[in-house]
């Protein structure tokens, strides 16, 4: 836990010997703690501040551990609570999990097992805190990857602008969320944001939807109707999947963007459009222009400012953050306790291809909230189609590295970067020497390092006795 701002672990047990065991074990592990002999003392302390993790006995004089669990969860819903009892009965376990316990620890317990459990709860608590901080900074879009930080910076730079924006990216990558953020952080934020998916409507209906119609303009037009341009007056019009817009409507849209006026279907009076247009597409519009499927002049009108959203495959480091957020969101929507992904399940997710991008991940998290049998989600609980999928080749070793880092963190190891860097160098040089039959100069050339460097590294890493005679 070095370098992390960790609040104390609270241990509540009326048995003085149990408190002593925890005090010794946590002191040895360098984990800050505070012990209480009864639940009422912990509840009183809760008014001053909360712990990072709570460990509590169930059966105690006065308020029980389950009552303490309930009170803590009301005030701090995400705080991990570990309950322990000498009465290892099903009823107590069920009551603990129904009350939102992180884990159930029957007595007598192995001290190392208890400490490992506390470390897992600490990691969970710190991840929850990190997720909350990120959500408070940018509740509409989440992302810590460099590519997403570029998107956030662009939204910030455009905050005082009403320029037309073209958002590109694969389906499900979050283009509509970016459009909402651009509107919310613009001078037009107090006015409406009106969205329309141009690929979801027939051509004739789309024209009326965009520009409105006069009474009697066509069969069934029994009253005048304002279109999306009028509904968005003073605000923003978001045109999703603009690449699928029919050619005739491309011409009408170009006219609006060029001179700022339009006509309702069947109308003769020009209507002024004070609207900012944000368009989005998953298609390659330049290719569509070359194929004659999209007007080049309209493309240039739309392509004033371009924002490219990365696919989820390009920002795998955001998958844990997004998964935790979507699991919490699904739990809130359904009114249930949020489920958690084990380290192995999280690493497995991070190695998937996700052709449906963020939307696919959100759907998976919703499915898991409903269908996963336990609070802790393991690889075997993931949807069958995800488990049968071939992993993204380029991420295999990244996933293995991520799992190893998670294991080392869970064990509380220090100097992790130095240890892994040493193992990384040792593997590279050993494999290169094996490939070249022990010829150092050739191995050094393949690795892109000098002969003196590889000779020094061989000695430092203890590879002398394993290599064949050098060339």
Strand order, main sheet: write it out.
Answer: 2-1-3-4-5
Structural class by secondary-structure content: alpha/beta
End-to-end Cα distance: 47 Å
Large-scale geometry: flat
**Which oligomeric state applies?**
single chain
Ranges where pLDDT stays below 50 over 5 or more residues in a row are 131-139, 465-471
Could you give a short account of the major beta sheet?
5 strands, parallel
Q: Which superfamily, in CATH terms, is the homologous superfamily of the largest domain?
A: P-loop containing nucleotide triphosphate hydrolases
User: What is the C-alpha radius of gyration, as a whole number of Å?
Assistant: 30 Å
Strand content: 5-15%
Number of strands: 14
Give helix % range: 40-55%
What does this structure look like?
This protein has 471 residues and is α/β, with parallel strands linked by helices. The protein folds into four domains: 9-132, 3-Layer(aba) Sandwich (Rossmann fold), CATH 3.40.50.2300; 158-308, P-loop containing nucleotide triphosphate hydrolases (Rossmann fold), CATH 3.40.50; 313-398, Helicase, Ruva Protein, domain 3 (Orthogonal Bundle), CATH 1.10.8.60; 416-466, Homeodomain-like (Arc Repressor Mutant, subunit A), CATH 1.10.10. 48% of the residues lie in helices and 11% in strands. The protein is built from 20 helices and 14 strands. The protein has helices at 16-29, 39-46, 65-75, 90-98, 111-137, 146-157, 175-184, 203-211, 228-231, 247-259, 285-290, 296-302, 319-334, 343-350, 357-371, 384-387, 396-410, 416-435, 440-447, 451-460, and strands spanning 9-12, 33-36, 53-57, 81-85, 103-106, 165-168, 193-197, 236-240, 261-262, 271-272, 276-281, 305-308, 340-341, 376-377. Strands 2-1-3-4-5 form a five-stranded parallel sheet, with helices on both faces. Helix 13 (319-334) crosses helix 15 (357-371) and helix 14 packs antiparallel against helix 17. It starts with 8 loop residues before the first strand and ends in an 11-residue tail after the last helix.
């Amino acid at each position: 836990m070095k370098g992390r701002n960790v609040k104390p672990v609270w241990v509540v047990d009326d048995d003085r010997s149990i408190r002593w065991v925890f005090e010794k074990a946590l002191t040895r592990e360098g984990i800050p703690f505070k012990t209480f002999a009864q639940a009422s003392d912990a509840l009183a302390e809760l008014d001053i501040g909360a712990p990072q993790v709570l460990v509590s006995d169930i059966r105690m004089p006065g308020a029980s551990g389950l009552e303490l669990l309930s009170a803590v969860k009301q005030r701090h819903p995400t705080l991990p609570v570990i309950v322990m009892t000498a009465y290892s009965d099903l009823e107590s376990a069920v009551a603990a999990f129904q009350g939102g316990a992180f884990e159930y620890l029957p007595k007598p317990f192995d001290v190392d097992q208890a400490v490992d459990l506390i470390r897992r709860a600490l990691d969970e608590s710190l991840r929850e805190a990190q997720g909350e901080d990120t959500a408070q900074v940018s509740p509409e879009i989440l992302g810590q990857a460099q590519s997403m930080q570029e998107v956030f910076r662009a939204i910030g730079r455009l905050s005082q602008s009403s320029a037309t924006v073209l958002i590109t990216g694969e389906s499900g990558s979050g283009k509509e969320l970016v459009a909402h953020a651009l509107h919310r952080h613009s001078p037009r934020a107090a006015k409406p944001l009106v969205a329309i998916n141009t690929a979801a409507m027939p051509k004739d209906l789309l024209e009326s939807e965009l520009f409105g119609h006069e009474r009697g303009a066509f069969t069934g037009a029994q009253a005048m109707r304002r279109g999306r341009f009028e509904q968005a007056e003073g605000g923003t019009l978001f045109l999703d999947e603009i690449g699928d817009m029919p050619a005739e409507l491309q011409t009408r849209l170009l006219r609006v963007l060029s001179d700022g006026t339009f006509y309702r279907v069947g109308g003769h009076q020009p209507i002024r459009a004070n609207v900012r247009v944000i368009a989005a597409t998953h298609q390659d519009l330049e290719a569509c222009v070359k194929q004659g499927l999209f007007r080049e002049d309209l493309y240039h009108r739309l392509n004033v400012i371009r924002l490219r959203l990365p696919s989820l495959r390009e920002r795998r480091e955001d998958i844990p953050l997004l998964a935790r957020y979507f699991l919490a969101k699904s739990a809130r929507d359904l009114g249930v306790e949020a489920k958690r992904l084990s380290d192995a399940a999280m690493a497995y997710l991070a190695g998937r291809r996700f052709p449906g991008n963020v939307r696919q991940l959100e759907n998976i998290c919703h499915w898991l909230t409903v269908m996963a049998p336990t609070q802790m989600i393991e690889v075997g609980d993931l949807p069958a189609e995800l488990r049968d999928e071939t992993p993204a080749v380029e991420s295999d070793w990244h996933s293995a590295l991520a799992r190893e880092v998670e294991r080392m963190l869970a064990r509380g190891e220090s100097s992790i970067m130095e240890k892994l860097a040493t193992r990384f160098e040792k593997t590279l040089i050993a494999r290169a020497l094996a490939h070249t039959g022990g010829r150092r100069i050739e191995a050094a050339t393949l690795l892109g390092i000098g002969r003196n460097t590889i000779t020094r590294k061989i000695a430092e890493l203890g590879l002398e006795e394993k290599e064949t005679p050098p060339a």
